[in-house]
Recover the amino acids of this structure.
């Protein structure tokens, strides 16, 4: 077997064969099961899109009704999971809380039966149904309040906003949130999906798979960027400060949050849709002064880094939409996770269909044939530098 050339971050290296989604990074195209994201955002719902991603076809009306009914039935949490959340520190990040709760589901439902379609179907329903309830419950409990029970009369998106804000959402707000979930549901082999696949390839349970992916999504270079973008806009504070900020980032070679992408070398099509959703919300519920800063940011970065293919990605405008929907900044990434569970589960199911454990190789750069030196014969020095790590993004 020939050894492939080492590519940092596996850039451009196919890690699987998949029919779930397709991205054309040069043309700025995204398709789920061959259907373009613009059509899904306009016509579909998150649960219908999740069904499409996981089972490969758009559901018939009876199939969609049954799926929605199952999700409604499984939204509630075991009281032990709620009790576990009561022990979490209020200052803990909601992504850490979510990862702990996702893994904890395995304590109740693990009984691995990966060759049983009913087990697969139940795991898909439980994870899609319970993750939003966990996110909303932690939000209320960290404020010292009891979580509210899901409302079976509300659809998926409206129910999440209700559980979060304890009031029935405006229909436009609920629809826009549902579209955000569609946009964030799937994106080929991104870092958290790859994490899910590697974990899945050992044939562990789906709850461990999702817990693994949640931990990966949390990083600021991936799903954590949406939270960082809003903090960046707040720190910039005014349109006048944008260009000096961008110049400083370029000078210091620091990454500007919400920009750039391993695959897209043009504006992320999801950013374009999210921008329109933000404008719809501003028209109905009032402007957000950070939007003018964001627009100036997009202009400045495109002028200065467009030649390197650095344009807004999905995380650049999403935070402005979530903010208008009353979602706290540190819940932006958990909301990303609520949607991406659909993509993770689709890849989990596809991986099981033709599984081989992920075990890549390496280019070894260390020493060989070294002797063991007894402690008494080693130099009596203390190299402080050895214990410092330099973060390289
Ligand atoms: C998501 O993979 C997916 O599909 C992810 C995602 C999904 O739906 O799952 O789309 C969601 O994670 C979106 C990305 C969110 N992250 C950010 O917004 C963080 C900021 N972006 C960067 O960290 C970066 O663009 C990445 C991580 C997204 C991509 O990194 P790459 O492909 O490894 O690119 P790189 O770091 O090798 O950069 C290549 C060049 C470098 O310049 P040179 O050294 O060649 O001169 O582009 C520059 C980088 O300095 N560059 C940036 C930049 N991103 C890349 N310069 C300034 N600001 C940036 N944001």
């Amino acid at each position: 077997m020939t050894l492939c050339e080492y590519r940092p971050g596996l850039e451009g290296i196919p890690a699987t064969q998949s029919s779930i989604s397709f991205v054309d990074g040069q043309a700025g195209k995204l398709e789920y099961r061959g259907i373009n994201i613009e059509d899904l955002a306009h016509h579909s719902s998150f649960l219908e899109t999740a069904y499409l991603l996981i089972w490969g076809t758009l559901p018939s009306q009876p199939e969609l009704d049954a799926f929605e009914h199952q999700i409604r039935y499984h939204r509630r949490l075991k009281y032990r999971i709620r009790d576990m959340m009561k022990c979490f520190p209020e200052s803990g990040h909601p992504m850490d809380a979510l990862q702990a709760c996702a893994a904890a589901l395995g304590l109740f439902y693990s009984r691995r039966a990966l060759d049983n379609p009913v087990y697969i179907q139940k795991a898909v329903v439980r994870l899609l149904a319970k993750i939003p309830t966990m996110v909303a419950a932690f939000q209320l409990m960290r404020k010292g309040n009891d979580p509210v029970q899901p409302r079976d009369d509300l659809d998926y998106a409206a129910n999440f906003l209700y559980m979060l804000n304890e009031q029935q959402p405006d229909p436009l707000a609920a629809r826009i949130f549902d579209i955000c979930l569609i946009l964030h549901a799937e994106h080929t082999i991104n870092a958290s999906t790859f994490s899910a696949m590697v974990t899945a390839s050992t044939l562990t349970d789906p709850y461990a798979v999702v817990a693994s992916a949640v931990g990966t999504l949390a990083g600021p270079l991936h799903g954590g960027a949406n939270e960082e973008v809003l903090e960046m806009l707040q720190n910039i504070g005014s349109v006048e400060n944008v260009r000096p900020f961008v110049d400083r980032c370029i000078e210091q070679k620091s990454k500007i949050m919400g920009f750039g992408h391993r695959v897209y070398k043009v504006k992320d099509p999801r950013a374009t849709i999210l921008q329109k959703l933000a404008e719809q919300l501003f028209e109905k519920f009032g402007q957000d002064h950070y939007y003018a800063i964001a627009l100036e940011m997009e202009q400045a970065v495109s002028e200065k880094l467009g030649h390197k293919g650095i344009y807004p990605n999905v995380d650049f405008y999403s935070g402005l939409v979530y903010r208008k929907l009353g979602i706290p900044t540190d819940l932006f990434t958990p909301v990303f996770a609520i949607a991406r569970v659909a993509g993770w589960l689709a890849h989990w199911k596809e991986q099981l269909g033709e599984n081989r454990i992920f075990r890549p190789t390496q280019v070894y750069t260390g020493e060989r044939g070294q002797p063991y030196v007894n402690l008494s014969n080693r130099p009596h020095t203390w190299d402080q530098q050895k214990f410092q790590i330099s973060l390289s993004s």
